[in-house]
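Sharing a chain and its predicted structure for anyone who wants a worked example. Both blocks are below, sequence first, tokens second.
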Amino acid sequence: MPIRLLSPEVASQIAAGEVIERPASVVKELVENSLDASARAVTVTVLEAGRKRIEIADDGTGIPAPELELALSRHATSKLARADQLFSIGTLGFRGEALASIGSVSRLTLTSRVADSDSGARLKVEGGINGRLEMVGAPVGTVVCVEDLFYNVPARLKFLKTDSTERRAIDGLLTRYALAYAHVRFKLTEDKNVTLQTAGDGDRRAILAALYGVEVAKQMIEVSLEEEGLSLTGFISPTALTRSNRKDITFFVNGRWVSDTPLTTALIQAYHTLLMVGRYPMAALFLEITPEDVDVNVHPAKAEVRFKNQDRVFSFVQRAARRTLLAYAPVPSVAPVLWGGASRPAESRQVGLDWSMASDVERQTLNVAGSSFETQNQTEADNVQRSTLNLPLMRLIGQIGQTYIVAEGPDGLYLIDQHAAHERVLFEKLMAQHDQRKIPSQSLLTPVIVQLPPQSTNLLISQLPTLQHFGFDVEEFGGNSFQVRAIPTLFAGADPASALRALVEDFEEDESPLQSEVEAKLAGRVCKRLAVKAGQTLSPDEQRALLNDLEACESPRTCPHGRPTMIHLSVDMLERQFGRRGAR
């Protein structure tokens, strides 16, 4: 095939593929243009997850009518003039590609008016072909309406994810920019539902409260540190407030949202030894650095940056976060009274498992022996796994480390992980009720209001019928709030908010959350969150009740997610360890 120049239309669509990957990419580019235009209010309207329509309206400086057509040309920008300015960029946009790229894969209408003009101008673009410039009445600012995204690129349209996933991407994007630009009023409307609205008064903690709820906002710790050429502000979570993934860690560099692994790693390192393995903090941090010390021209979508001195930035972020954490909650001196110390008076407790001490922090599986011990007894462990799943009757001995229950069986000693065991018990009871189509509910004396981030709202709304089937009575309560009126009787005394958050916290970007999950997975997710946690003291009656319930389970040796509930130490193995069987 001979070499030829690509037509402008094909070249535009290829270039657009680097910048415009999904509807959220359109929102990002246009919102950044609004912020560069000094907008004080940005209104985003989305229909059908952005496939049908995306409209961004702002009250910024606007575009003069004679420059409107030029603004839709590729590599046309007002933010850059010379090559050396690439190394000191102070604006969010600078490539001059966004409007041209969007216009090449959609039907775009650009309307704008500057303050010293009596009228505005409008220009329509369809598949990269400009229409005729019209003079129209319009307020000061710019309105960009993008319709039928990817109508002329059906392959790209086919690869878009579900509406729920695309909406969550838009929600997450606007949430981040609302935090970074707290002085700007943001409003997001999706299919006639307002999912995000901020006051624009500069109060970031108020925005946190609107996004995550008042209780979470109260707990967040403010970070503020300055050094020569570096400044870090924002919020991080205390060690008691964690997530199971990194999705709630947000970094802005010079006002630009970036996905930077070293920055995220620096923050996580600041929590070293303070968090359980597999748990991550929440954070919204804003790094200001001399523009000459950061290169933002390394990714077509401007999502990545490179620092001139990465080690210095890494150390600065880590020190700022660590210093804030230690000032908020100094590390206690380690002087535990292991033996012979004064014991605390026993508290009066009711029979049955106590939910009051349950928290979001879970312990990971702890090793109880060294590798040599483990190797020698691997055969015995395999024999246990191959044996019948039913457990023998066990005699309670006690609790170790507020995490493990020790029990004696006819064939040796059992160490039971109380969290994994209770998770299995709850799961089998709930699924048994589900199979019988009888999941009794208990109405709450006072309905509980739960606030969720915008990106989680649509996800939960789509699953309200499923929750109803499982015994939850949940209804929308305006904005991103939900009202819990009843929960399954099995979870009586548990925290309803934890149950709802368990359904939406752990999903990854590329999943189809909940819609593609079977009901057993949904039940397992709720049971995991509501089971008693490691570190929770159980009374002898509570320990005994848990053992009895575990013995009655059909699959007592693992939790619903496959983690072992117990370790078996046989009498034969103990005798060999103590030398009662001669040399090994």
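Comments welcome. Confidence is low (pLDDT under 50) at residues 330-388, 508-516.
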